[in-house]
Amino acid sequence: MGKTVLIVDDSNTMRKIVSRALRQAGIDFDQILEAGDGQEALAVLADNKVDVVLSDINMPNMNGLEFLKAKAEDPAIKDIPVVMISTETGADIINEAKSYGAKGAVKKPFTPELINDTLGPLL
Amino acid sequence: MEYAQQIIAATEEIFSSMIMLDVVAGEPCKRSNETLKSSVSGIIGLTGSSKALLGIHLPNSLAISVTTAFLGMTVEEVDEDVRDAIGELANMLGGSLKTALDPSGSNIQLSMPSVIYGEEYAIDSLANAITVAVPFDLDGKTFMVELQLRKDS
After folding, report:
1. DSSP per residue over A68-86, as a string?
2. In order of start, what are the domains of chain A with their CATH numbers?
3. ipTM over 0.85
4. CATH no. for residue B102?
5. pLDDT per position as a tens digit, B112-122
6. Under an 8 Å CB criterion, which residues of B touch A?
7. Phi, psi (5° rounding) for residue B142?
């Protein structure tokens, strides 16, 4: 049975590109949901069963790290795996994301193969 | 010229991996203060131990064709999708440059990208900055990636 993925990025372009990369990676997704920031992502998670989240870090309103912290405090969604997709992949920020529960990080620009290698073990 | 190779490597990687387009770098040069005409520019700032502005400037026709390739759907004018795509290009270029300037990622911060577009506009220079601009050829047209950098420490 296919999975449901949530893509969180304030750029509509990037959400489309990540969607395309997921399809090109051959990962079996039934549904791809989108959110423009962390607040929207929390609302989507409250109303949908999501198997994995791909999230940018730098976003207005609620950024990726704030989203991770808020998600970790909600027992209903805290165990949903999150992978960061961002231009920000310095060791400090990635370690901070992982301390809030992120399972990995993919640096932009990325290839479908890299997406598959990172997401595969989580699904 | 300093940082030209980083600009070339980042631009080539982004265009080939994300957009599947091959760009050809031209000779790096000093920044020009000429006004840009019928163009779209993506600008991103870096602050912290270094202050920088990185910009990518494309003529409208190239911005539209790049966005079409980016999204996998036809775009016909400089609309919200084009502006978003060019902003995202600036974002990725900024991220690559930040990694080159600060591998730890903790001493330099990226701004949110801005997009400027129109029939005629100019972008001022940072005071006391090193500048480098690299022209790129794509399908016989030219776009420019430029960096203005001022190290404060």
Report:
1. HHHHHT-TTTTTS-EEEEE
2. 3-122 (3.40.50.2300)
3. no
4. 3.40.1550.10
5. 899 999 999 99
6. 13-14, 17-18, 67, 70-72, 80-81, 84-85, 87-88, 91-92, 94-96, 98-99, 102-106, 110, 112
7. -115, 135
